[in-house]
Amino acid sequence: MWELQCLQIEKDSMIDITKIRNDFPILSREVYGKPLVYLDNAATTQKPKCVVDKIEQMYYTLNANIHRGVHFLSQQATDEHEAARVTIQKFIGAKSSDEIVFTRGATESINLIASTYCRAFCQPGDEIIVSAMEHHSNIVPWQLQEEISGVKLRVIPINDAGELLIEEFKKLINPRTKLVSVTHISNALGTVNDIEEIIRIAHENNVPVLIDAAQSVQHVALDVQKLDCDFLVFSAHKAYGPTGIGILYGKEEWLNKLPPYHGGGEMIASVSFEKTTFNVLPFKFEAGTPDFVGSTSMAAALDYISDIGLDNIAAYEDELLAYATEQLLTIDGLKIYGTAANKCSVVSFLVKDIHHYDMGMLLDKMGIAVRTGHHCTQPLMDRLKVDGTVRASFSFYNTKEEIDQLVAGIERVASMF
Ligand code: PLP
């Protein structure tokens, strides 16, 4: 029965699940003697062979420091690194590859904007708007700026389903609002925010918008020009790429207006003890030896998901989410946190008064990897009046059979309490 359903999904959404799972060697390993069921994709995704092959190829055949070398290897590695930038530009629909800045990840990208934007454009008492469902990485950098620049954080509230209250957002905007920084998809609830509407409202008030796409770039096709966001950030490791690298997209006119973030090699035009001048975009923001192994293997990951097709991925993952939601709700005493009308790939839940940590530990012994705790969203957990949840998050390499195993695992744990 399950096989039939899976084939049906495969047929409808063009996902070749057998081939895809073969691309991810880790998915066929066992933990505690049980087949791994990996449902912690919102924390990090597994890597297809082509990404690891690219890392190996770069180190074995193309390892040389880039941009400054005149020798063959350095130039070839530079070409690959800059070609990766163009791949990323096209992947998110940016106008120019100069608008693609390599960082260490979504967190560093937000810190970069918080620091440089507040330094350049904010006065004490100016306001930055975030939402109640932000990851700590879109809260704490702004709180640091509260101390440094004197800005104040304002928070868009949510309803009990975990949806942003757009009317309340409108009321928060005032002449002191300097930036809106919101997540596209909530890592803890799976809510898909209406970022088109948020951007439209902010721009009507001449306020720029930063979109945290850490949980969306791997699930839905994005086009930054159509969205018209001013900044957008994401991490490679959540999109099937390597750890330690990510992207800051910024409109060229904004990036040109911002001061540098880190100082060092690469980001300068000339240095003297009297005066230092800075490099052009995007290098102005890329101090130090660039991560050319990270950039090129990240591009391999984005090419991989582009080949499958983001529309196919979205359709298949929506099916998985609908199936998981339906099956989980059959469990006695299970409550889902995050019931927004528009959701993506994440189910957060608790079962009766079983602690999320106990549930996670016992599922782990059955080979099922889920996340437990506050998911780096403590203010959201406070709003929901829980100290944490169990979170299952899905990728296009997961199957309905794995969801059945999750449901059976939860039932087994529940029967122990
Ligand atoms: N934003 C969201 C919505 C996230 O889910 C995460 C990570 O979980 C981040 C930002 C931070 O990503 P990273 O730790 O890769 O910088």
- How much helix is in the residues? 40-55%
Radius of gyration: 22 Å
The assigned structural class equals alpha/beta
Strand element count? 17
Strand order of the largest sheet: 4-10-9-8-7-5-6
Estimated share of beta-strand residues: 15-25%
Described by the principal axes of the CA atoms, the overall outline is: globular
Q: Identify every distinct bound molecule in the structure, by name, code or SMILES.
A: pyridoxal-5'-phosphate
Mean pLDDT over the full residue set: 96
Distance between the termini: 31 Å
- Low-confidence parts lasting 5 or more residues at pLDDT below 50? 1-11
| Biggest beta sheet attributes | 7 strands, mixed
Give the helix/strand layout.
Elements: H1 2-13, H2 17-23, E1 30-31, E2 34-35, E3 37-38, H3 49-61, H4 72-92, E4 100-103, H5 106-121, E5 127-131, H6 140-149, E6 152-156, H7 166-172, E7 177-183, H8 195-204, E8 209-212, H9 224-227, E9 231-235, E10 246-250, H10 252-257, E11 268-271, E12 276-278, H11 292-308, H12 310-328, E13 334-337, E14 346-351, H13 356-365, E15 368-369, E16 371-373, H14 378-384, E17 389-393, H15 400-416
Parallel strand pairs: 3-15, 5-6, 5-7, 7-8, 8-9
Antiparallel strand pairs: 1-2, 4-10, 9-10, 11-12, 13-14, 14-17, 16-17
Helix pairs in contact: 3-11, 4-11, 5-6, 12-15
